[in-house]
Design brief:
172 residues, alpha/beta, Rossmann fold, 45% helix, elongated
Length: 172
């Protein structure tokens, strides 16, 4: 029975996998940089174009009191920092691999899914912080949400690049 199944699978015509657009969300963490490294590897093999995405979640970044005191004004500095982060990450992308950057605001998970749809992404490559089951249930997980809701496959990567230095001030 097992041999028949293997033979049947091997007799199927070979399928080609289309991968022209890869979305790489980043928060600047070591896990996100490792995801970018994996996306670069895939783009080098497939010829895919990368879109590096930073999502600014004003609700997470600006305390409720600050939002009230700012009278609805949202600090432009948050978006500027997101552009700076992505500009630094673009230095990791080797010549010959097409890449651009995009900064959006909103809930991280929902925004990543929306951008994947908007960009007609064939793949989303993102790092996971590995919060664990209990912490993930309490806090939620952006990577879990994206994996469940994205219109395309999602590759979740673990770990950080070799030589990554932990910054205790930012928990990264």
């Amino acid at each position: 029975m097992k041999e028949n199944l293997i033979q049947e699978i091997q007799s199927r015509p070979r399928a080609s996998v289309k991968c022209e657009r890869i979305l790489v969300p980043s928060d600047g963490s070591g896990e996100a940089v490792e995801a970018l490294n994996r996306a670069i590897d895939l783009a080098a093999v497939t010829g895919a174009h990368l879109t590096l995405l930073a999502v600014v979640d004003y609700n997470a970044e600006v305390a409720a009191f600050e939002q009230v005191s700012l009278s609805g004004y949202v600090p432009a500095e948050l978006k500027i920092e997101a552009y700076r982060l992505l500009a630094e990450l673009m230095h990791l992308v080797p010549p010959g691999i097409g890449a651009d950057i995009r900064v959006e605001s909103g809930d991280a998970g929902e925004t990543i899914v929306d951008v994947a749809k908007d960009e007609n992404s064939d793949l989303v490559v993102m790092g996971t912080h590995g919060l664990g089951t209990v912490q993930s249930l309490i806090l939620g997980s952006v990577s879990k949400y994206v994996a469940e809701q994205a219109p395309c496959p999602v590759l979740l990567t673990k770990g950080v690049p070799d030589g990554w230095e932990f910054d205790p001030e930012t928990d990264e």
